[in-house]
Structures are given as C-alpha cells and as structure tokens.
Design brief:
single chain; 327 residues; Rossmann fold
Length: 327
C-alpha cells in the first residue's frame, strides 16, 4: 500500500468515480485547469475534459443550485465550495431544497449530490477562511454530514458519498490536507457512511473527535500514555447520522468521556455527543462529560499567537485528559 496525503486521497476518490460512472461530474470555482485552490482536482480537467470538470462562476448559490438540478435529472454532481466559509449563500438551496426533496416528493425525487468544502482553522486564514460550519447542517434531517480524518477514510468515505442516493456534505480539514498521511490500498474499496471508528482502544477514558482534532487526540493519547493513562480514541467520521451505539459502548467501557472539536464551544457539534452520553450512558459515567473546544469569539484570529490561543491542540487535549482522569 502507498502512503499518501489526505488531499491526494480526495483526488484519487474523485478520479476513480469519474472513471467508474459517466454521470459523475465536478463543478466549482477554479476546479478546472487550475485544479482548485488546494489542488484537489489537479489533472482531472486534462483527463476528463471541460464537460466533466466545470469551472463555475464565483457564486456558491448557483454552484449548489446547478448541482441540485443536475442530480434531479439523474447525474451525480460533486460541487466544490472553495472554503466552507463561503457556503452560506447556498444555505437555502442545501437546507430547503436538497435536504427536503426526498421527503416532500414522498420518495419520488432523489438528490444524489456531494458538496465538498475545506473547513477549520490552523492555516492563519483569518475570519473568512477558517470557519467550522458543520453544526449548522447536522441539525438538518435529509442531509448526511461527513468529516474524514485520514487518507484511507477520506478516499473511502468520498466514494461512498458519490454513490449515495441523497445529499452528502463532505467537509475536509484543510490543515490536514498535506499533514495527514497514511496508507491507502490500490484496490477498489469504500467506507460506509454512518459508523464511527475506534481508532485507539483504551480502558481509562474515552475521547471523541473528528477531522484534524482526531489526529490531535491520537497524539494527546500517546502523550498521556507515559503517565499510565490508557485512552480510547473514537473517530466519529459521519457526524449525521450519528453512530450512537459506538459512542455509548465506548463510554460503557471506560466510564469517562471528553469531546473535542474546533468550533465554538457553545452549541457546537460536541454538545450533541455530550447529550447522547448523558442520556444513554449516564449510569456508566464516573465523571461529568467534558468538552474541549474553541472559545466563544466570532472567528479564528489571523494572528499566529491568537490562533494558537483559539485552537485546541495536543497539549491542551492532553491536559484535559489528565484533568478528567483525576476526577
């Protein structure tokens, strides 16, 4: 198996799905000859041509609207939003059209649409290139929301998303595009949407995360192992629908839970995980459920020192794990 980066895994997934199914096409800003701002589609325009890899206007509403219309007519669009921060003009299209089409038509109309977008901080992108927007969309039945944290999962989950008959939002941790590396098999495979993954078994406490925070949690777990703490790390992967069974089983095993996410603390996605644990695993808990997230300020600062203050990192996670273990 070859070791590749997360961004290369995303590119491989789209390449293979374009080759497998002639209904698949890509559209978005600069996805053509330029290959996208992060080069996720680099080389695909030359390989598949302008009818399959289509540069769009700078208009997110139209990118998603075209994707919805094409999906309703039987195509399999992959719509790239250049940064997750820019997805808000298309919010109505996603929430009121794509998410509700199957329900409003009593199962007659499907929207097999994938919307890809890089999200999160850590690259000094400032206010409009660092946002975490997943919590907005995990509130919406009819959407699947997926965030990978490894090249293997990025490729397998994206291929599964393209084949799904209903809309999938596929958010990619941009800081991890070239930092996260891992082995990916050359043969065909998909990773099912839905199940979480226990990426590091442990017995003393559980930590739940996704995207770049999952990678940081693995590092933090290795750090506190030197103190004798055996931490179980659970990669949530599919945020909606959420894998309640894996979450509850992990807490039942360890008795303590920490939820880590890089969005603002209040009303962030981790609050739902904490609520699931409080409701379904209360009798297994030996300590209150803890959350570690970004502070409630409007956006990720551009300044490097302020960004480090804002973002969770392995040291902060390790400190939270030690504190929870001592409760």
């Amino acid at each position: 198996m070859a070791e590749i980066t997360l961004i290369e895994a995303v590119r491989q997934a789209m390449d293979e799905e374009l080759a497998r199914d002639e209904r698949v096409f890509i559209t978005g800003e600069d996805v053509g000859r330029r290959g996208g701002v992060f080069r996720a589609t680099l080389g695909l325009f030359d390989k598949y041509g302008p009818a399959r890899v289509i540069d769009s206007p700078l208009a997110e509403l139209s990118i998603v609207g075209i994707g919805i219309g094409a999906a309703l007519y039987g195509l399999r669009p992959i719509c790239e939003i250049q940064f997750a921060d820019f997805i808000h003009p298309a919010f109505n299209q996603i929430v009121n059209e794509a998410a509700k089409m199957y329900y409003r038509s009593d199962g007659v109309w499907r929207v097999p649409l994938v919307i890809r977008a890089p999200y999160g901080g850590g690259i000094s992108g400032g206010l409009y290139h660092s946002q975490s927007v997943e919590a907005f969309f995990t509130h919406v039945p009819g959407l699947k929301v997926v965030i990978p944290s490894s090249p293997y999962d990025a490729k397998g989950l994206l291929k599964a998303a393209v084949r799904d008959p209903n809309p999938v939002l596929f958010f990619e941790p941009k800081k991890g595009y070239r930092l996260l590396k891992g082995e990916v098999p050359p043969e065909e495979y998909v990773v099912p949407l839905g199940p979480a993954r226990v990426s590091r078994p442990g017995r003393d406490l559980s930590v739940f995360a996704y995207g770049m925070m999952h990678a940081y949690c693995l590092k933090a777990a290795a750090m506190v192992a030197a103190d004798g703490l055996d931490v179980e790390v659970v990669d949530l992967r599919t945020l909606y629908p959420v894998d309640r069974e894996t979450i509850v089983a992990s807490v039942a095993k360890t008795g303590k839970a920490l939820v880590v996410y890089e969005d603002n603390l209040t009303m962030g996605y981790g609050a739902e995980i904490a609520a699931i644990i409080a409701e379904a695993a209360f009798t297994h808990l030996d300590a209150p459920v803890r959350r570690l997230a970004a502070p409630d300020v409007p956006a990720v600062p551009f300044s490097h020192p302020y960004q480090e203050w804002f973002m969770p990192n392995p040291d902060k996670i390790a400190a939270a794990l030690r504190d929870l273990a001592a409760y």
